Amino acid sequence: MPSVQLDGEPVPADGALPRESLGSFGARPFGFYVHVPYCASRCGYCDFNTYTATELGGGASQAGYAQHAIAEIRQARKVLGESYVPVETVFFGGGTPTLLPAKDLVAMLKAIKGEFGLSADVEVTTEANPESVDEKYLVELAEGGFNRISFGMQSTRPHVLELLERRHTPGRPEQCVRWAYDAGFEQVNLDLIYGTPGETEDDWRASLEAVISAYPDHVSAYSLIVEDGTRLASRIRRGELPMIDEDVHADRYLMTDQLLGEAGYRWYEVSNWAVSEDAHCRHNMLYWTGADWWGVGPGAHSHIGGTRWWNVKHPTAYAQRIEAGHSPGLAREVLTAEDRRIERILLELRIAEGLELGVLSEKGRSAAELALQEKLLEPLPFADGHAVLTLRGRLLADAIVRDLTD
Amino acid sequence: MPALPTDIPLPSKTDPALIRNFCIIAHIDHGKSTLADRMLQLTGVVDERQMRAQYLDRMDIERERGITIKSQAVRLPWRVDGTTHVLNMIDTPGHVDFTYEVSRSLAACEGAILLVDAAQGIEAQTLANLYMALENDLTVIPVLNKIDLPAAQPEKYSEELAKLIGCEPDEVLKVSGKTGAGVPELLDHVVRTLPKPIGDPAGKSRAMIFDSVYDSYRGVVTYVRVVDGYLSKRERILMMSTGATHELLEIGVISPEPKPADGLGPGEVGYLITGVKDVRQSKVGDTITAQNKGATEALAGYKDPKPMVFSGIYPIDGSDYPLLRDALDKLQLNDAALVYEPETSAALGFGFRVGFLGLLHLEIIRERLEREFNLDLIATAPNVVYRVIMENGEEHTVTNPSEFPSDGKIAEVYEPTVRATVLAPSEYIGAIMELCQGRRGSLLGMDYLSEDRVELRYTLPLGEIIFDFFDQLKSKTRGYASLDYDVDGEQVADLVKVDILLHHEKVDAFSAIVHKDRAYNYGVKMAERLKDLIPRQQFEVPIQAAIGARVIARESVRAMRKDVLAKCYGGDISRKRKLLEKQKEGKKRMKMVGRVEVPQEAFIAALSSDSDGPSDAKKK
């Protein structure tokens, strides 16, 4: 994402929410995101809030991390009050959550269950790096209550993995898919990245075919974004690698949708495909439908009833706040009605369910009609009062959002 | 510092026989202001402590560019043979755009110092002003300046000057404005050789306005040369061209700061203040007389300034439009030649079509608008005025290319022409001729000034020299050529309007009137340029250049195929909303041409990479 400075008002030391946000808690599905800010090494394209052992000094060790996260989960209970709102989804992301011992992940999940309770059909996901898990680890997680796993595969081609500075060997992610199903996971995702400098059309086709033959029930495919400040960005700036060509990205996306479509996957969000509705990632759907979630860990973002806040980024600063019994929240914004309308447009337009046309202003509505004429929106849902992107529309989603938010 | 003489004659009580009025004709960097500085010091009117370089050049912009826009008149006492004389030094503007102002300054004098750089020789503009001085029957004193320079060639250039004005080489004075060498002798020479002013002290008062300057404290300060009779303070005066009358609030001389006096007598030069706020009420060339029992016949030579070059000037931020209007109003107070009227461009919004005397004038005004009024501006490519005769006999005056009739029923188009003089070393004759012919010039004549310096005279269309002609001339002659031109009538020409269309919509700011043979080049160049400047849209955007309905060049901007960020998870939402707000701000600044969103920067880049623009006026 191009850099935009986030600023907001301060979060009170006890993390208390504005009354109007807290008042509607429970009216929407509720989930937990747990950020694990550690990686074995940093990938060349990554600008996430994550740290390697050498980047972190003392004071914020991996070993103590689960206890700090659990302390924040307890804070969440205090902030959100005693009402019974069982958790629908839990998602461990990073970083590399699987760098922690499986028992730590399970302990954090147990803390959530203990404080809030889990709904009967709870979805519990962790991200995993193919090289950081084995059969035993996966079994431990499954037995501990995890039922969905997402592997960062990125590509099947060695030269692409090398450029992305990913450490696993080709074939390992497919192996992981089998282990995960064998261990009892119900849902498995493979993450892919396309448009890496030097990746050919054939390279990308090979990656898609490898994914399809491993047959996870869910695939995410992202175009490579060159983030400022990454090694990848500086290599491109120095001319060592070619610039990313957006037209090539468009071609890759079309191929992705075509090959996955032929193999039985359907898009349900711009960058996500699944074999059935049950295979959708319910946690991500929370994000896209304005539901509530609590983000635990350094730099994690949360949303409850129209208040968004984000935690201090650095693990050391995070640990200090938690130990002092303070909210780790750095800043927050309380959304206005118009902010929430704009967010609905920019989020819901990205999903296959689409956006209710009633959300649009008069100007936005006529922009939508123009988009329909331009074949950027699907005609049938439109007739039913929904803006749903066509294939070409998905590639221009941000431009369409700019028009529809007028 | 020399002591001021004690017998200085007072204004209005000065015997015309003791007065010498002169100007200095010089090319821009030949040292006129430095020489004037020495004269101020030697005559004692400015002491060491007050002295600063280019003392007489008032505006910052003048001092920075080393050119003088507004002339000044300074009264200097100078003692010769035991009698203190009064010298009035009238500083003349040095650029081709201000020819008329130069001619009025010359008309206020009896003599001229022809000042030429001893290392460079005479330049075309100086030559033109010299001819003007000779036509006004001025006595010319040839002077070589900068004789202290190692590269000075006083013998060579003395001969050149002698040949030009018909004197002996040893009659050419040699000075250094920098060191002051030869300057006292020059002042003596002025007293001894220049004629005293001739006028009728008993006649009805007549004074010629040779300059008019707006001062924010005093209103308009008018510089005059009294020819006949006397002007006295608190008298009511009449401007003969307009018939307007004013009370004289103040009258005086400049020496070198304003010094009020009781009046001005025949032959004297000074200033007057009437309280008018706009220089157009006190026009250069006009004659002033007394309201009661004044003269009935004006002095000869008054002309209204006529704009020759037009450009659309627009604020980059549309909300600055009222500021731009106020700024132009203010500048007009001091510039009778500046004309403008509001115009609207689909591409650039609200602005003004502004008429200028020439390119230097354009550039100075634009720079002053930006500098003194803090405006960010965009200017369309300058154009000249065309006279279009339709088949039905109707006539249109076109100052904006987008208003050029395009329905094809045009009988004839007239364009203004100039008589141009080029001075250059003779080895560049071929290059100069090639350039002038390429600009549709026709050779009028050629003369050798000396063995290796030549003067070429051409008729050229004004429209052909307002772009990059001067730059080209300089680069083809390694900087040695100098140019002067004077507007000289009009001619029928085979001109067409080329329109630029974006997604089938005309972009008015890019319409241009060009010669038929050059239309294709212009069209191809603009289409190519815009192709690189216009961002991709959700649809393909054809760019066409057309004459009427006939397309002569085309390009296209391919449709944008991808505009979506792949990821949008919990932590991205706030940032994505902020990014959207930022993008929408950017979208607001876009100009819409039909459905095409064009960033203003693209228009600016397309217009300004016409590099050629007014830059030629800047050079010397």
TrEMBL record, chain A:
* Domain of life of the source: Bacteria
Q: Where in the cell is it found?
A: Cytoplasm
Residue ranges of every copy of the Radical SAM core domain listed in the record: 24-266
Question: Where does the protein principally reside?
Answer: cytoplasm
Molecular function GO terms recorded: 4 iron, 4 sulfur cluster binding; coproporphyrinogen oxidase activity; metal ion binding
To which protein family does this belong?
Belongs to the anaerobic coproporphyrinogen-III oxidase family. HemW subfamily.
| Task performed by this protein | Probably acts as a heme chaperone, transferring heme to an unknown acceptor. Binds one molecule of heme per monomer, possibly covalently. Binds 1 [4Fe-4S] cluster. The cluster is coordinated with 3 cysteines and an exchangeable S-adenosyl-L-methionine.
Q: What is this protein called?
A: Heme chaperone HemW
